[in-house]
Fold this sequence. Notes:
By secondary structure, the protein is α/β, with parallel strands linked by helices. Among the domains are: 10-226, Roll (HIV Type 1 Reverse Transcriptase, Chain A, domain 1), CATH 3.10.10.10; 231-304, no CATH class; 457-593, Ribonuclease H-like superfamily/Ribonuclease H (Nucleotidyltransferase, domain 5, 2-Layer Sandwich), CATH 3.30.420.10; 669-722; 740-775, no CATH class. The strands form 7 sheets. It has a 5-stranded mixed sheet with strand order 2-8-7-3-4, with helices on one face. A 5-stranded mixed sheet has the order 17-16-15-18-19. A hairpin with a 2-residue loop joins strand 12 (217-220) and strand 13. The longest helix is centred in the C-terminal third of the chain and has 21 residues, at 755-775. 28% of the residues are buried. The model is unreliable at 441-466, 732-736 and 768-776 (pLDDT under 50).
Amino acid sequence: MPGLDPNLVSHTLNIELGTKPVVQPRRNFHPEVEKQIKVEIEKLLAAGFIKPIKHPTWLANIVPVKKKTGVIRICTDYRDLNRACPKDEFSLPNMDILIDSTSGQGMLSFMDGFSGYNQIKMSPKDAEKTAFRTPYGNFYYTVMPFGLKNAAATYQRAMTAVFHDMMGKEVEDYVDDLVVKSKTRLGHQEVLRKVLERCRLYGLKMNPKKCAFGVSSGKFLGFQVHQRGIDVDPEKTRALKSLSPPKNPKELKSFMGRLSYIRRFIPGLAAMMSTFTPLLKKGQPYIWSKECQEAYQQVQQLIARLPTMRAPTPGFPLKLYLAATNAAVGALLAQDSREGEESPIYYVSRQLKGAETRYPKTELLCLALVYAAQRLRHYFLAHKLQLVVKSDPVRYFLTRPVLSGRLARWLLQLSEFDIVCTTPKAIRGQAVIDMLALFPEVEESTLSKEVLGELPEVVATIEEEASWTLYFDGSSTTNGGGAGVVIINPERQATALSFKLDFPCTNNVAEYEAFIMGLSTAREMGAEKLKVIGDSNLVLSQLQGSFAVKEATLAPYRTAAERLINSFKQVVMEHIPGVTNRYADALGTLGSKLSYVQEQPNITVVKRETPVVEAMVQEELLEEDDWRKPLRKEFSGESSIKDLKDYVLIFGELYRRLPGGVLTRCVGMVEARRRLQEVHDATCSLEPVTSLYRRLQRKGYYWPQMRKQAADVQANCPKCSTVPTTEEAFTVSLAEDWRAPYLAFFVEGALPTNSKLAYKLKKIFHGWSDSLQEGI
């Protein structure tokens, strides 16, 4: 077979100098296998792919591999030869990009190279090094064989040279798999003719048995591509569904490897695989547990309904959904089509390792964002990205005063992408539902935002039969007790009362006091049906008859409480945890800690929505053209890491991050002029070695063009612009300058009291005293 022109491409081994040739020992084969080997050798000789050799320096063994049809294929064990060859760094195309580029086309043609690598000639100086041993003699390849280390790179380089002007436009190629594409069916014939003429020009042969021309759908790199998007090859899906549960670690690795190839289509794959991972650890017994079987069945259910992915549309933003559990993190990349339908593009997920399992929820989402950026970088760079998540990891980065360690590295990685965060309004696509179902929310305890005057969320869920609701709680301290009561009427209006128990009492007595005073107040307000909610298990259980009254001091309280309960038409009692009864608890604690300076004080609790320092910032007079306004506006809206990576907003005040994590306050131009003059006036007559810009920076100020304005002020100042004399140069602030002990020694001859520093000064005195004085 003629093959490609050697002037265009030939395969060279480039064996490293000094490498000793390896001759592999002979392997024996079954007589039946030897007969088939002979047939294959004769075919290769007839095609001119191999030639006999008598004295090879390198010699490898053959490995017969049986095909599905029962016929063997001769492969060669080139492991020793490959170790002696440096890697060819010619990159193969990104498979995800190729698949995306092939989908969504009007018509496709699929072609496969005839005899694959054998169309490329071996370099004459390296051909004999491919020698191999057979029962019928030794041979070497005149064409590039399968199994060589850099064969794929050489073939890809050749295809790039042949179709260099058509790649990415009319042709997509991965080694010997070629796809001709066109947006419309009418123009496909012309494109196909152009490709075939190029093949004829360079002598590139195609296998007609593996070609499909003018189709709307076909298999490419293990996936089914068509105009609607991308699907997994149905044959691979059927093979996965027909598998039985793995019986040993080897079968489990094979199963997980097959799933990894189609991980793009499976939401939360890493979360499910985390169940299987412990079975692969060394020394771990292989026990297929109930959890493993459930995870296996879950995977099989997902395989049965894999979604259709689509390639992103240029010019439209992408959406990224993040999710995390205590075992894995994941993300979904999606995009709204021109019709407004949200379609999935890519699922990514990975298991947590080591200390990552102890990250807080927000940092887990940051980790998911960073991992998605690493895996999907080619998508992130080409599109604007909308991050759709409840907890905003972007704002988490931008509101941290000091970023160090991994957070600083993450911010640096993300700063090259155009990412903004939006709040999810509604789940619009099945793909998002599938991912969230596999990533349940991480359980975490967060500080409630409730304060006095704001009811917890549970208050809003009142049963219909209880028209009134009473929350009660008691508190006991060494200074006395307190009782807190919250009464909610049918119109959902709350009445909050705090009582000071100015007598010695136990905590249980305080709880009863709160219960009784709450019931009395509710009856006076006209309540007939009442739901009583509290966190005192003892009081509620005693009144419901579950607990007996063992303390004599509580007996009269229970009697009084039962009498009050009987005065209502209906009373329903419910016990809740203390964490959800914070409102009444706060009122009881307030009453227990008060010391009266007058009778019946009236206390007003005012709720503030923002910190007082933020309110002060808002009251600050800003000029109309304040350079900080756009940045503050972006912080309050959709924050972009790319634009705000060097800034942080703390209590409404804008700061700029300097190298090393130092924060400097951003000031307006009016204040900037004032600060510039103040610092200059205060330091003009001092040491000249530090610039005005550096002094402003040390004071913690920043504004645009601060360096230039500071330099202009110093240039226009007679004192600052005059070169200091030698005597003036020695008037250095000894408290602040590191050179102080050295200058004192050289000028006055006085050694410092620190013995180590004194010894150091004596030792280095003769080495650089002259240069130091000259430098000053």
